[in-house]
Amino acid sequence: MDNAPSPDDEHRVTIAPYLLPLAAGFVGGAMNALAGGGTFATLPSLLAIGLPANVANATSNVALLPGAATSAWAFRDELGPVGGISCRVLAAVTFAAGLVGSVLLVLTPSRAFDLIIPWLVLYAFVVLAFGKRASAWLRARATIGTRTLLVAQFLLGIYGGYFGGGVGLMTTATYGLLAGHTPRELFAPRTLMLAVANAAAAIVFVAAGVVRWAAALPMLVGAVAGGWAGARVGRALPAGAIRGWTLLVTGATTAVFFWRAYGHG
Fold it and tell me: What is the number of other CB atoms lying within 10 angstroms of the CB of residue 225?
């Protein structure tokens, strides 16, 4: 009898599993609004509560979708062409590519791609760190046409649908290199592309039945709140602060992904 759980213990056992996804959703939603990389907060929390990696990834994607949509709506009045291409065209390319990437996740194991992810995020970090100078150097020697940017966007969409970790950071880096935009200028188009890629993937993941809703729903609530808060903060921050935050998040994400892929011996 002495070891029987009290009503308070039972209450804590019932509520506790939802607190971590809720908190991780808030952090992830805010990160996506400010610089991207929200999956870095949400995916580990889902792995920590025992979800398989592919289920955790799909659940994270669906949970972050409303937060990404909230941020995109908050920045809607800042939307404009990227590299001479309208956001509607880029969104259409992203949606199609996101469907392709999410189908690949459902049909194939993710271990091989896990080993590639750290190098992709490292690319984002390097381009963000040296993007302004690299963009000026590249544009002085070559003309970046719309075809190059569309191909890059299609690849980013596939990545976003397949895994999505750091895709916001990679989008910022790629747009900066190919179109010469600063991270602050990319808040609106980046958050829109993130929302579109998540929406395409969510359709496939829900249809395939790989979403764990008990974890997705509290994470979804947190992500909406975090996306709104991040967008509000982002409007008030100067470009230098955004650049510093973006580099910090990208560097931390790169280190964690390398440890995840190669740190287990």
Answer: 16
Measured CA to CA, the distance from residue 34 to residue 226 in angstroms comes to 10
Instruction: Give Cα separations from 125 to 19, 23, 128, 249 (angstroms).
Output: 31, 26, 5, 9
pLDDT, tens digit (0-9, with 9 covering 90-100), for 144-154: 678 888 998 99
Cα(187)–Cα(72) distance, integer angstroms: 8
User: What is the tens place of the pLDDT at every residue in 85-141?
Assistant: 888 999 999 999 999 999 988 887 667 767 877 887 787 778 777 766 766 676 666
Q: Does pTM top 0.85 for this prediction?
A: no
Beta bridge partner(s), residue 85: 82
* DSSP class per residue in 152-205: HHHHHHHHHHHT-TTHHHHHHHHHHHHH---TGGGHHHHHHHHHHHHHHHHHHH
Q: Is residue 215 within 8 Å of residue 46, measured between CB atoms?
A: yes
Q: How far is CA 173 from CA 100, 147, 183, in A?
A: 22, 18, 8
Under DSSP, is residue 82 helix (H, G, I), strand (E, B) or coil?
A: strand
What DSSP string runs through 45-79? HHHHTT--HHHHHHHHHHHHHHHHHHHHHHTGGG-
- For 169, residues 6+ apart whose C-beta sits below 8 A from its C-beta are 35, 36, 37, 121, 124, 125, 128, 246, 249, 250, 253
* Residue (of 199, 173, 223) closest to 101 by Cα position: 199
